[in-house]
Design goal:
The complex is a heterodimer.
Chain A (H helix, E strand, L loop, with lengths): L1 H45 L2 H34 L2 H6 L1 H28 L6 H30 L4 E4 L4 E4 L2 H5 L2 H31 L4 H36 L1 H8 L5 E2 L3 E7 L12 E7 L2 H7 L5 E2 L2 H6 L1 E3 L5 E3 L3 H23 L3 H14 L18 H30 L8 H27 L4 E3 L3 E2 L9 H34 L3 H5 L2
Antiparallel strand pairs in A: 1-2, 3-6, 4-5, 7-8, 9-10
Helix pairs in contact in A: 1-2, 1-5, 1-7, 1-8, 1-16, 2-16, 4-5, 5-7, 7-8, 7-15, 8-9, 8-14, 9-14, 12-13, 14-15
Chain B lengths: L2 H22 L1 H7 L7 H11 L3 H18 L1 H10 L1 H20 L9 H28 L3 E3 L13 E3 L5 H4 L2 H25 L4 H31 L2 E6 L2 E5 L2 H8 L1 H23 L6 H21 L25 H11 L2 H16 L5 H5 L6
Antiparallel strand pairs in B: 1-2, 3-4
Helix pairs in contact in B: 1-4, 1-13, 1-14, 2-7, 2-9, 4-5, 5-6, 6-7, 7-9, 9-10, 9-13, 10-12, 11-12, 12-13
Classes of the chains: A mainly alpha, B mainly alpha.
Chain lengths: 523, 379
């Protein structure tokens, strides 16, 4: 059992490492592809070489970044098989489809037209080239769509039923998977956040150009495009973040409680804007969860339900199965100890079904199936030893959520300043402090982006599929030492390549800052 | 469509993707010759020629994996989680490839051009070899056992159990080496043929590749004959129930005989490959050899997948527990999922059409040394 847990932990570490590295590059790819496509469109319309130079410069950085995103992406896809083989069978009938569609619809589009983007300038017409650039941008977004549909399904399982004969879940409604609340919110939130990230990146690099007084004209126009893309992006991100919060409250209330560090909920629950968690706080004790906090009255109730007086359950409430009506009446729901018991009944019923099937006992199969159907919603709880195991790491979820929200608020201000600056107060953008803030914001947006994913993924632990399959039952039969070794191998390789990527990016930015627009446009 | 038809249809799609992947490994073949090419200009020509196609090979590999996952998830679950080290090593070689084209000659790449060329060479040699080994297990078997009921054992819930060496036993199995090495030399031969087709302006470089075609082609033919000999004399399994199989001597030879059309296609493919090789190697300036060998390769690989999975043959035989073997009937997705995926697969002709069109537009004019000198995006 101890070895199993270690394998689970190392497998989680390895997947997290790959996903986090992957997510360093992907949002920049998605956002920069759009920005480059807009710039090239302006060039094709105006024939102004400055826009051609801008297109080529940002396209170069896009290409450097794209390559390493591809490298980390293939690992993620195959890790579902290498490290989570039980998962691959248990839900492969559902989860495999979006991955395959991603490949057929999106990857081929990207990989075919990106070659035209980079090598087709003299081989195809300007209109064909522009089409290729837009199709590459569309391919990156389509790719995000299908992988996010797959991820959303893990958070909100839909469109499926359990097939006891094959001991796995099978798809019965494709559109329910594609258009689940979580899928819609996750796709729009993630893609718009990628526009934000690329917008900040372009503005930050442009600020460096302005600081160095090199190609200032090109930098100012780059800021214009990036401000619009990022500005629209941040508004959509905030709106869809609100959708996400409502979905989490509905489908993953334990995650919401962890995001808030909330143990005992109430009607009109306040939202902790800033706070420090009490490290001694344990599930079920009476300690105050916070050492310090600044709260917004009714904030969490409003965020979670759009009703400032609604009840939002905390961790202890959920474990004990307590819900409250708006009037404050207590309602008993199914507590976690009971869920564990029901989950084990589901396991027993499946075992009974299997042996009845082996014995050709139709009546036994029917009875077992009836029990199984009734208990299946809590199937995953049958693997847990105690209710506390169903609580995600609270501190990491709590702080990551706050970092994301605060950075998001900062970025709203950032784009407001950038838009005002570039259209009405150009002097602001020539101020050295503003330039440094612009560059520093590149770090902020990446931290914000990573924090979002940490909140989403750490907050849903221990589930790989919400309520159905915990990570400990999703793994492959490999030794902890093997996974530990490959973890460090991946960590080393990704870091070596990341260092090279950053170095090449910085060198190219420096090099192109010194060249005039005509030279860049002919490059 | 019935479930059985859908299973056959999806095995066909897997076969097509697998066959196209083997053809597109000419990119890896080209990479495998980088370090042995002393002339730097030749090396740059080679990289920039195949550098415009590497993503297509890479994507085909990813889609091959994705399609396998969607259509035959029990294979994905069993093979990837079981032959852990085999697949991890394959992945490592492809990670190196993905960045090397972009980074190798960019200023600021820290580790120098040779470092990235080494990564490309490793991907070209080891990547091809290991992919061949992985496919070879579809004929010569793998050491695994599938027990669905394990899912109900919280202490040890994994349904697919593999030999403790987790893929190393496959890498060090001599039978798998035949196909592994054959894939390497096939890829090298096709890489050289692609250079002959795609690069012009240097006669010495053309002659160098012509020699490469002959040498690698001959080695490939010998290795391929060894593999075919092993295949035709190998014992295979026959499906007698959904999860019940029996041993049949010379199963794959009999599959070719039973499915005579498959045998015909196999022979046609072999002849096309041989024609492409010898015509290219012995003509003064023949550049179309890649298309003959390419079509031939696709045909041969298609039939290999067909004899592996059709005619009631389990495509992933277990040498540990015969009844754990995977067939297209016991490892597939459900009727519903395969139907959904089949609707999506209607897009494949459009995808193939735009790939072919872009390929035509981009390769209409062969690459020359001066193209690289005047292109700042050159690899």
């Amino acid at each position: 059992m101890n070895d199993l847990i270690t394998v689970v932990d190392w497998s989680r570490w390895q997947f997290a490492l790959t996903a986090m590295y992957h997510w360093l590059f992907v949002p920049l790819t998605i956002g920069l592809a759009l920005i480059v496509a807009i710039m090239e469109s302006i060039y094709v319309k105006t024939k102004n070489v400055k826009w051609l130079a801008m297109t080529k410069f940002w396209m170069l950085l896009f290409g450097i970044n794209f390559a390493i995103g591809v490298a980390t992406g293939i690992i993620l896809e195959f890790e579902f098989g290498t490290n989570w083989s039980n998962y691959s069978w248990f839900v492969g009938d559902i989860f495999g489809a979006p991955l395959a569609i991603e490949g057929i619809v999106a990857f081929f589009m990207e990989s075919t037209f990106i070659a035209v983007m980079f090598f087709g300038w003299k081989k195809v017409s300007p209109a064909f080239h522009l089409t290729a650039t837009w199709l590459t941008a569309a391919g990156t977004a389509l790719s995000a769509l299908w992988i996010l549909v797959a991820n959303a399904w893990m958070q909100q399982p839909a469109g499926m039923e359990f097939d006891p004969e094959q001991m796995r879940n099978v798809m019965d409604n494709f559109w329910a998977i594609v258009f689940s609340d979580t899928a819609v919110a996750k796709f729009t939130h993630t893609v718009s956040s990628a526009w934000v990230l690329a917008g900040v990146f372009v503005i930050g690099v442009s600020c460096w150009f302005i600081l160095k007084k090199r190609n200032v004209d090109m930098a100012m126009d780059s800021i214009k495009v990036a401000s619009w893309v990022g500005g629209i992006g941040i508004l959509v991100t905030l709106a869809t973040g609100d959708m996400s919060a409502v979905n989490v409250a509905k489908h993953q209330p334990m995650k919401l409680a962890a995001m808030e560090g909330l143990y005992r909920g109430s009607c009109g629950q306040e939202l902790v804007g800033l706070g420090v968690l009490n490290p001694d706080k344990k599930v079920g004790d009476d300690n105050d969860p916070y050492l310090f906090d600044i709260a917004i009255p009714y904030g969490l109730s409003f965020l979670a339900t759009h009703n400032p007086h609604a009840f939002v359950p905390g961790i202890d409430d959920l474990i004990e199965g307590i819900e409250l009506t708006r009037e404050g009446d207590t309602i008993r729901t199914i507590g976690y100890a009971e869920r564990i018991a029901i989950g084990r009944e589901a396991h027993e019923a499946l075992r009974a079904y299997d042996s009845a099937r082996a014995n050709g006992d139709d009546a036994g199969m029917e009875a077992a199936l009836k029990d199984l159907r009734a208990a299946y919603p809590y199937f995953g709880y049958g693997y847990l030893d105690s209710p506390e195991e169903a609580v995600p790491p609270v501190a990491l979820t709590f702080y990551a959520f706050r970092v994301m929200v605060m950075a998001g608020g900062y970025l709203l201000l950032f784009f407001a300043v950038a838009l005002i600056g570039v259209y009405w107060r150009q002097g602001w953008l020539k101020n050295k402090v503003v330039n440094w803030v612009g560059m520093f914001s590149i770090v902020v947006v990446w931290i914000c982006s990573q924090s979002g994913w940490i909140t989403a993924e750490v907050g849903r632990q221990p589930w790989v599929i919400q309520d159905i399959l915990p990570t400990r039952a999703a793994i492959s039969e490999i030794s902890a030492s093997s996974v530990m070794l490959t973890f460090w191998m991946f960590a080393a390789v990704f870091t070596i390549l990341l260092v090279a990527e950053i170095s090449i990016m910085l060198t190219q930015i420096k090099k192109y800052s010194k060249e005039d627009i005509t030279t860049i446009s002919k490059s | 469509m019935t479930l059985e038809l859908l299973q056959i249809y999806w095995w066909l799609i897997i076969s097509v993707l697998g066959a196209l992947l083997v053809f597109l490994l000419f990119v890896q073949g080209g990479q495998s010759m980088l370090l042995s090419t002393r002339n730097e200009q030749y090396r740059n020509l080679m990289v920039n020629s195949i550098g415009q196609k590497w993503e297509l090979t890479f994507t085909t590999l990813v889609v091959f994996g994705g399609a396998f996952f969607a259509s035959f998830p029990l294979f994905y679950s069993t093979s990837f989680g079981g032959a852990y080290w085999l697949w991890i090593l394959i992945l490592f070689t492809f990670v190196g490839q993905a960045v090397s084209y972009q980074y190798r000659r960019k200023r600021g790449n820290i580790y120098g051009t040779t470092f990235y060329d080494i990564l490309l060479t490793i991907n070209g040699c080891l990547g091809c070899f290991l992919l061949g080994v992985a496919v070879s297990m579809m004929f010569f078997g793998a050491e695994f056992k599938v027990t669905m009921g394990n899912i109900l054992n919280p202490g040890s819930p994994v349904i697919s159990q593999w030999a403790p060496s987790h893929g190393f036993e496959a890498i060090f199995c001599w039978k798998n080496w035949a196909l592994g090495l054959a894939v390497v030399f096939l890829a090298r031969m096709q890489g050289a043929l692609y250079f002959m087709n795609n690069i012009k302006g240097d006669e010495n470089f053309f002659k160098l590749n012509r020699r490469r075609v002959l040498v690698n082609g001959l080695v490939f033919v010998v290795l391929f004959l060894v593999f075919v000999g092993l295949l035709f004399t190998a014992d295979g399994y026959q499906t007698v129930g959904k999860n019940s199989f029996m041993v049949v001597h010379n199963k794959y030879l009999f599959n070719y005989i039973d499915m005579w059309w498959c045998g015909l296609i196999f022979v046609s493919g072999v002849l096309l490959v041989l024609f492409g090789v010898f015509k290219s190697a012995f003509s003064t300036h023949y550049t179309k050899g890649i298309w003959w060998t390419g079509v031939g390769t696709v045909l041969v690989v298609l039939t290999l997948f067909w004899v592996a999975g059709f005619n009631d043959t389990p495509y992933y035989p277990s040498t540990t527990d015969i009844n754990s073997s995977l067939s297209i009937y016991n490892s597939s997705s459900t009727h519903f999922t395969l139907t959904v995926m089949s609707v999506v697969s209607l897009l494949v002709p459009f995808v193939v059409a735009y790939i072919a069109y872009v390929w035509y537009k981009m390769d209409k004019k062969p690459l020359t040394p001066s193209d690289i000198e005047h292109d700042s995006h050159a690899y």
